[in-house]
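Pasting as-is:
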Amino acid sequence: MSFTKGCHLHLIDGSAFIFRAYHALPPLTRKSDGLPVGAVAGFTNMIFRYIEDAKGADAPTHAAVIFDYSSKTFRNEIYPAYKENRPPAPEDLRPQFPLTRDATRAFNLACLEIEGYEADDIIATLARQAREAGGRVTIISSDKDLMQLVGDGVVMLDAMKNIVIGPEEVEAKFGVRPNRVIDVQALAGDSVDNVPGAPGIGIKTAAQLIADYGDLETLLERAGEIKQPKRRETLVNFADQIRISKRLVTLEDHVPLDFGLDSLAVKEPEPEALIAFLEAMEFRTLTRRVAEKFGREVPVGAPAPKSDAAARWAEGAAPQARLAPQAEAVAPIDTALYQRITDPAALRDFLATAQATGVLAVDTETTSLDEMQAELVGVSLSTGPGRACYIPLGHTTGGDDLFGTTALAPGQMPMDEALAILKPVLEDESLLKIGQNMKYDWKIFARHGIRVAPFDDTMLMSYAMFSGLHGHGMDALSEEYLRHRPIPIKELIGTGKAQITFDKVPLDKATAYAAEDAEITYRLWAAFKPQLHRAQVTTVYETLERPLVPVLAEMEMAGVKVDPTVLARMSNVFAQRMAGLEEEIQALAGQSFNVGSPKQLGEILFDKLGVPGGEKGKTGAYATGADVLEDITTMEDHKQAADLAAKVLDWRQIAKLKSTYTDALQTHVNPDTGRVHTSYSIAGANTGRLASTDPNLQNIPVRSDEGRRIREAFVATPGHRIVSLDYSQIELRILAHVANLPEMKAAFARGIDIHAMTASEMFGVPVEGMDPMVRRRAKAINFGVIYGISGFGLARNLRIPRSEAQGFIDRYFERFPGIRAYMDETVAFAKANGFVQTLFGRKIHTPEINAKGPGAGFAKRAAINAPIQGAAADIIRRAMIRMPAAIAHLPAKMLLQVHDELIFEVAESAVDPLIATARAVMEGAADPAVRLSVPLVVDAGQGASWAEAH
């Protein structure tokens, strides 16, 4: 198609898309060969979304994606230091650059790059040509350097924010119209691209100067007239540098092109080529979406072999062995086969099949994710592929009657009748029930008097086999292992303010959605169950994962009593403390400002108080995170700023305590029980650690007086006490065992203060009369080494010079060589096997262990720490699983787990027996699976509140 008057050209800044995709998404590797493809995945999805959105009356007639050819261009001949400050591309991003070009061509889009020129120059040239031909241009980018092109039929589109950038938006950003943007940029310079500009002149000043004098040349010619001496001297002395800067920021709009606008005519993607590329990249979700769009068949069941075209895309791949459950070779999931059961006879007939086979998948539909307040709406069941049903119990008509009562929709079973039929089946010891995240459904049924047992949990099977590789939600597992995309819940209940609860969903749609969940759960179980043994994680699943479900469910249902008056009083105290700190902060700043505004704080610290080293982000605001403020507090040459930063850190901590805990916890008190019921995620952390949510009771700070006081609000009921039992230095004990450290093992065996012993060994000082600061340094190193702390990190923790901190770490490894040997052996094992393992057989996969670049260090530290933290998590899991039976004879309940600590509520008369019993269980939890060469020690405390007990 010829490009003529009225045509519309879209120019996509491909390089910007790549980097945005790379930084927005977590690392992702192609499973067959470990090739990094995270940026390609993000880029491909962005291009697909662009194509889908670029339709309608204003659709482009011509389009192209433009890339940077390399980092060296003609500008480096003008100014050799141009862009020299930019770090090289991350190691894991480099191999993805050519793949993004392949992706562009796979979508049948023009893919352009020219040696010696930047993508922006090609965009400028094409924009000029299109404008001269009478056409319009939309540049898909938010890059400020392209804003000089806006106007006369050229606009920009920030695709991420869906914002059109025209002349007014450019003026709002630069203070001048687009035709004077390069003058402002020449004056202000650009630290990112190393454009020098005029020292000390920023965007605002530059805009004002250009507005006053009209253009850059006139300003430089009349620089002697400027009244401000420093500004005048800068413009006179650096005139040549400013002119060079203008050449650097001016886009070249006459790049020699070997193609014309006509060649950029929009063409539909060729389905076979596009699907082949996506299949080769192993982007299953997008492959399915594209196949559905073009009416191509979507593979179902086991992953299909690559087509010839896909094999060519993936040429050079070196497949690695990886456990991947094979889905059943059965028919695709067909929701039309599902049965809606509304009478007892039909339900009994369906359950008879399950009783004959011995297996039944079960799922519940409710009105809320909060199991303690959710109302049961329906139950879905499956006995195998193609055999699933839904039993609606609580669907409503959607409105209330004259008396405010919600009416049930017709065509449902009475809940009491259905549950009476289900109860003996769900509690039948000879019938295995299957669930996905069974803890949720277990609690829903428990609230109706049904204790589901025995059961399997597909989420926990996935967690045992694939921890560290991917998430374990049903939708993700279905797409990954069944090649089936479940019905999205949003299609039924909507989103935002218009969202409805499941009881309002029509019965036909509810049946398809709910029964599908049950069938998917069954199919996942059939795929996963045989693989547990092959993956050598059967013991982990059977002894650490599955038995924990009812233990946690009982704890969550018990909840913990919280005194709202204590929380309210603390909120008031915190508010007063914040107000006082604000006054002190503003006095140090010498002006009033919003302490909670990072932008205003940055301007105070770096512009007004002159703290060096301020770094601005994409928004133009200075970074003022905790790490930045911590560094400022150590600056002796900037005492005022150091004091201000310290007080802001205090203010932020108290503000977080107030908003996250003393205010929020009051809203989490269950109106029916008067207690707070947290929910534990079993499969949240890769290492086996539990995560607490809604509310999170594991992150209540204990290092500050204010944080510790929050625990005062967690109280025992009358006649009872709160008891806390906490493992003492369990991770250090595990380290001493696995790294075989004789000195540490001997110290633990004799009950010696391990931190004092470490200080004595490292610094040659006696334990008796030791300076507390010396012990503190040893403690920081002891715990820091487990987490792979660097010299920089230790220096920040101890507020000492980095060289001194690194010296401590080096001396530590010299004194305890077994630790270095353990670390080296663990990393080598991870690289060879793709996972690490705890003492109890838990596998934590390490897919990034062989990566290079910024993420490599993190992957190694995670691999080193995982067996230690994971073993500690396994030990307390084993203790929790044994605990209910051990304390069943006592008037006590286990309420909370906070990493290495268990919290109980017990009758006052049974405090001592509980402590003795629970301590014995916890200290013996590793046996008989592992015989530790160091003793486990549990500290105990008790009181009227958690604060007193801890």
